[in-house]
Amino acid sequence: MKKNYISKIVGTSVPLSALTTKTEPQRPGSFSAGLTLIDWLEKTHQKAWQLLPLHETQLEPNSATQHVSSPYKSYGIGLDPRFISETLSKPNQTDLNQFYNSQQDWLNDYALFCALRDFFGADNWTEWETPLRTRDKETLIKWQKKLAHQVEKHRQEQGRLHYQYSLIRNRARQREILLVGDLAFYLPVNSPLVWVNQHLFNLTQVSGLPNGPRAHFGRQIWGHPLYLWQKTERQKQIIELFKLRLTYLAGLFDWVRLDHAKGFYFYGAMNLTDPAKDKVKIGPGSKALKPILDHCRKISLKIFAEDSGDKLKGLRKTLTEYKIPGIRIFRYSLMTIKQPGIHPRYARVAKYPKNCLATSTTHDTETLMGYLNKLTMKQCQQLALQVKTEVGPDRQVFAQRIRQAIIDSPAFISLIPVQDWLLTTGRINVPGTETESNDPNWRYQLKIPVEELPIKPILTAMT
């Protein structure tokens, strides 16, 4: 008998960029592959797909064409041109005009930024000529005219991208499948949103996480400019920038994850030359987060928040007040070697709160099989107690039992990374290992086209 998942959402987490389809085998991550994945989700009775960010990323240093791999170094708005499918239809002029009219808050500045990037061979606008860097009005008008053809090309390209994405959105709605997106907390300096709103950022310090006893991945330098939260007169404008991005995402997704949500309360200010001078600073807290959550309610955008790590009391208080789901990540059930044992927040999968999103692993961790293969038998036995099962001699069978426990947990959404459905070890990202050029992270690709994804094992888990 099929389990009653009417009030339960089970889905898959996989970046669009990891997918290929038989119709376009040479174009990984095309929207055509996304449409095919929707079909697979329906066949396996799943109800959600977490895509992760879809924006174009910044250029690598000293490169005019090569973009960095991390979607968390993205422009923060718009869609990445690499997702265009040559097999899908194109928008007509009426479609384009409707798109232009609905996206006036960002599109024109975005298109001009991309045209200037192409002209100068660099998107680091801090190195452009001074009048452009400071956005002198007469200079902007001059360049708008000079690059009119290129600006229009980028406008049309975004129109085509959003039209093709709407085919995915519409098919997902028809199949009653939710699309889950991601709001990166920070923006890179090489972003049109930072260029336009540079007065809201501290361009002399960068984001990251200082090392400490609770730093699971150690010290991390992310490299984004910091928000000028300390200038109280600009806080409202920073909040409006968050609202702009969320309004845009509401046109793409049903649910959005607030990445690094504790950054509203505490955030790292990293010293590039001396780690001893890294600082943890206090953010605006609920004074900023509450109006952002109010805005999400107003535009009917569902939100859940990354609430892992330390210094979370203030964040969780606000999330509880607004009934915003947090997350439960099974990968973190075991504490570190310095803190052996089971983490109380992630213990007893059967006791997860209903108002949370549960997942086996994330894009930042090993896959479930990769993790289990690292553990001793004693550690596996500790995990087995949390899912009321036995380890057994076969780690794949153990992984299946863990996966099933997460699916059956009280959490109203369970998202399983595609690698954990397939019981493979291919990892997406290793935090703290990013390189400026040729970064090996965020290059994960499925080894089979979407059409060959298995159906029976997932159906078995859902029945």
TrEMBL record:
It catalyses: Transfers a segment of a (1->4)-alpha-D-glucan to a new position in an acceptor, which may be glucose or a (1->4)-alpha-D-glucan. Its EC number is 2.4.1.25. GO terms for biological process: carbohydrate metabolic process. GO terms for molecular function: 4-alpha-glucanotransferase activity. It comes from the Bacteria. It is an enzyme of class 2 (transferase). SUPFAM superfamilies: (Trans)glycosidases. Keywords: Carbohydrate metabolism, Glycosyltransferase, Transferase. It holds the Pfam family Glyco_hydro_77. The keyword Metal-binding does not apply. InterPro entries: GH, Glyco_hydro_77. Belongs to the disproportionating enzyme family. This is 4-alpha-glucanotransferase.
